[in-house]
Design goal:
single chain, AhpD-like
């Protein structure tokens, strides 16, 4: 049950934004659409995996539930998330993703400890600046969303999260999820 008495028991992110800051919902949608579905070296599935991974590291069940499903719908192996948390080096992801995910882990858990050597490892794995920037933007977006959902006490509705994951495309009405 949400912590805010004005929110219904089944409140989701859209209800939270619409209740307290509809302009914020619109702005977040614009922000999200600017990078979440860009095609490039970092695919939309990769970005959703980063979103889910960051959310899992932050113990945000709400965001993890939705974005892990979106990542899977986009082709990510469903068994990837727990191994990523346990040990990136042995996780079943492409080798070039591992330095990027190590960077994301540090940025999520101990952001002040990110170093140039961490960034250099990402570039050495072949990532371009645009892709690296987008990975950082995904991590930053989910640091914010994890704190919003946790702070408002939003609870995962498994049935709704599964339905939302099928339609989540960062369209004008869905960019805030």
């Amino acid at each position: 049950m949400p912590f805010f008495p004005s929110l219904p028991e089944d409140a989701g992110v859209a209800t939270m934004w619409d209740t307290f800051n509809p302009k914020g919902r619109e702005a977040l949608g614009l922000f999200s659409r600017s990078f979440m579905r860009n095609e490039g070296k970092l695919t939309p599935a990769d970005k959703e995996m980063i979103a889910a991974y960051s959310s899992l590291l932050n113990d945000s069940e709400y965001c993890y539930a939705g974005h892990s499903r979106v990542a899977i719908n986009l082709g990510t192996d469903p068994g990837v998330f727990d191994p990523l948390v346990a040990n990136i080096d042995t996780a079943p992801v492409r080798d070039e993703l591992k330095p990027l995910l190590k960077f994301i882990r540090i940025l999520t858990l101990t952001p002040a400890k990110v170093t140039k050597a961490d960034a250099d490892a990402v570039f050495a794995a072949g990532w371009d600046e645009q892709s690296f920037h987008e990975a950082i933007a995904v991590c930053a977006r989910f640091a914010m969303m994890n704190r919003l959902t946790l702070g408002h006490g939003l609870v995962v509705d498994e049935e709704r999260r599964a339905a939302d994951a099928l339609k989540m495309n960062y369209g004008a009405d869905e960019g805030q999820k």
